[in-house]
Recover the amino acids of this structure.
């Protein structure tokens, strides 16, 4: 850029910021307020003289506003967004960004502020209306994500799950009712989703209904709907039930074993005749719905106990898919764990991977909570990971089976499963990645640990190549 132009822009820098339609708040790394533009004064009613030179934390403590971004950005070195409430009742959305100098060190935090008071009030009204709708429409949960992704496929490597998926591929194109069985957390909803995606109804929604999550008193009206004035508090226009909403598509009845016995008779009519009867109505309505049901209960035992109808069981049991627990298919642990980690790493904008020793320890655990337990554990580790490589020391005690002071990782190394070169490459790369995360740049790490930048890049790249 021409030096005269650059100098001209610099001399008019504050005037340029005053011309912006968003409020601008600039602070240094210690939290001292350096500058606010004219729009920020208009938004907050505060004058520059009142806040410039003051610590942002002091402004919070004095009640001028309830939150600031500077400390968070200084700590994380990443952009952040937050809603801020002023003492006059205004609501601002703050978008903060770190500014680095030529050496890669943080020097300023720039925060943009926008008034969303009117939008917040509208959102509150919408939330209120949604609450009213939930009271009358019930809890409708469908799998919107990947609804039209015909390439969807669960992660697995075991022969047992390959057989399950093969069975699903054969069943899905039909309109047969499917009963999905398995322990809590094995992924019954994933199989239901796959069944729907491979069916001719894939372009319509998959409506998921948690049979255990509806109060018994509301189950009939939620599932089958009601006519106007059917009972006290009923809508004057009536209401469609879940089966009518899912007409032409698929309904997934999760935890079917929790369905009250009185409703099982009504469900049987849907399966036998393709008809529903709204509460308060005298005429049936035809519905075209494919039913996928799932449970972790032993329905045959429930029949003996009198809590489940045998005729409904046989109607549901046209095609049965049994999902084995995760402890019976340890081959699936690695692809599942890596898939979950990749998903959460993308969500939190991190580079994360499991060390081989960590995968081995995950494979040796029994997973009583099945895939759901594995997913939750990976989610936790993605949030709390100290560096890119998730080592055995970062695994919880129930996985390692050892006390925190015991060094399971060193025991694993001493087993001789990997060469010394491989071990050292992984440890070096892990150390360098953690150092870069801590000091903020490769150049800084190179200076502190007296190593060439090219060497750092080469060691990290070599480690990734070995893992792939």
């Amino acid at each position: 850029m021409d030096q005269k132009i650059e100098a001209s822009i610099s001399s008019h820098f504050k005037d340029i910021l005053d011309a912006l339609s968003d409020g601008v708040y600039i602070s240094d790394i210690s939290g001292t307020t350096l500058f606010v533009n004219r729009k920020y004064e208009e938004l907050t009613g505060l004058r520059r003289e009142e806040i410039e030179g003051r610590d942002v934390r002091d402004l919070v403590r004095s009640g001028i506003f309830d939150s600031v971004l500077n400390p968070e950005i200084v700590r994380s070195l990443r952009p952040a967004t937050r809603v801020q409430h002023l003492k006059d009742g205004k609501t601002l959305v703050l978008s903060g960004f770190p500014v680095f100098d030529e050496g890669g060190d943080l020097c300023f935090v720039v925060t943009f502020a926008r008034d969303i008071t009117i939008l917040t009030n509208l959102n509150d009204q919408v939330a209120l209306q949604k609450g009213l709708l939930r009271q009358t429409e019930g809890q409708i949960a469908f799998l919107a994500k990947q609804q039209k992704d015909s390439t969807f496929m669960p992660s697995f490597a075991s022969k047992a799950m390959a057989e399950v998926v093969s069975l699903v591929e054969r069943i899905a194109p039909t309109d047969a009712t499917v009963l999905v069985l398995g322990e809590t957390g094995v992924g019954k909803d994933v199989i239901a989703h796959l069944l729907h995606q491979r069916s001719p109804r894939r372009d319509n929604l998959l409506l998921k209904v948690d049979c255990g999550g509806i109060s018994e008193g509301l189950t009939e009206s939620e599932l089958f709907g009601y006519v106007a004035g059917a009972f006290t508090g009923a809508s004057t226009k009536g209401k469609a039930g879940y089966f009518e909403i899912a007409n032409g598509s698929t309904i997934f009845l999760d935890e079917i074993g929790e369905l009250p016995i009185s409703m099982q008779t009504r469900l049987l009519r849907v399966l036998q005749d393709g008809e529903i009867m709204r509460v308060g109505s005298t005429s049936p309505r035809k519905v075209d719905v494919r039913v996928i049901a799932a449970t972790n209960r032993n329905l045959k035992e429930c029949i003996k106990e009198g809590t489940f109808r045998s005729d409904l069981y046989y109607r549901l049991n046209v095609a049965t898919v049994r999902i084995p627990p995760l402890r019976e298919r340890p081959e699936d642990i690695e692809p599942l764990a890596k898939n979950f980690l990749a998903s959460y790493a993308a969500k939190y904008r991190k580079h994360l991977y499991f060390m081989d020793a960590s995968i081995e320890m995950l494979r040796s655990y029994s997973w009583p909570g099945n895939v759901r337990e594995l997913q939750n554990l990976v989610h936790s580790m993605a949030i709390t990971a100290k560096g890119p490589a998730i080592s055995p020391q970062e695994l919880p005690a129930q996985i390692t089976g050892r006390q925190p002071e015991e060094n399971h990782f060193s025991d694993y190394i001493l087993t001789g499963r990997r060469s010394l070169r491989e071990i050292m490459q992984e440890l070096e790369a892990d150390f360098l990645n953690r150092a870069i995360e801590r000091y903020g740049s490769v150049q800084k790490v190179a200076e502190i640990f007296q190593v060439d930048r090219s060497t750092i890049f080469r060691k990290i790249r070599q480690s990734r190549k070995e893992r792939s």
The radius of gyration is 29 Å. Residues 131-151 have pLDDT under 50 and may be disordered. The chain has 22 helices and 15 strands. The first strand starts at residue 23 and ends at 28.
